Amino acid sequence: MNFLLALIGVLGVAASGPIIAAFPAVPVLAMAFWRNAIGTAVMAVPAAINNPRSFAQLRKREWGWSTVAAFALALHFVCFMISIRMTTVAASTALVCLQAVWIALFQTMRGTRYGWRVGLGIVLSFTGVVVITGFDIGSGQEALIGDGLAVIGGILAAAYTMAGSKARAPMSTSTYTTLCYGMTSIILLGICLAFNIPLWGFDARGWVGIIALAVFAQILGHSAFNHLVSSLGPLTVSTLILLEIPGAALLAALFLGQVLPAGTIIGLAVILAGLVFVVRGQGKAKAMTTSLKATRST
Questions:
Q1: How many CB atoms lie within 10 A of CB 191?
Q2: Using one digit for the tens of pLDDT, what is the confidence trace for 27-56?
Q3: Is the pTM of this model over 0.85?
Q4: Closest CA to 84 of 140, 20, 129
Q5: DSSP state at residue 211
């Protein structure tokens, strides 16, 4: 069952970029709103069934961190989904997946000490970024701006993950996702209204894209990984999420015909290798910290 859920999760999140790129008639902000609104409606069902009073029992701390996570997630979707329309799916996905690197850097600034694996991974990851953006300079200014937005999207994803880890400690997955997705939907709705982004009036093909994005990326992809965290642990899940990079590139090549230059492929491979070092290095650092605490307690 875990293997099946992992496969569903990887395919779900990997399909996000290709779906966004495949339906250019629908504004990306509208797609961002609807994916979260639909995700909220679906996840609210198990939340209401399991514990109808779960939201009333939340403290100010959970509401506060959930609000921070929702703002970060909303802005992450804005940056990532716009970048998909400006650069290649593969490049945008890889640059957004740098969130693991940003988390490591944030934790380092807060005093966490990591070993050489994390340091090497960070160097490799940013080397891959330089390789990709260097090749995108030749593709035009739009692709380069798309790369920049993807990097910002990765930073925001890291902020969302860190805030969410503080918010959801006393909450079930369904309660947290309902709360976070719901608040994210409200924020995105405000952005769409402020910039006169249409939220309806699309043709049948446009709604197919919106529903596909909500079902595959939001409900199946994110929900599968949220469930797997409790059974496989965050380190294993973080490693599995890295498969989104080659998965998105493959889907974009198969269904969108996006052929990547050799240099960009090399950059993707370097980023992927760097992220593996970062994720594994963080896991070893946490294991050593736990071991030291246990030794001291005895």
A1: 17
A2: 999 999 999 999 999 999 999 998 888 898
A3: yes
A4: 20
A5: H
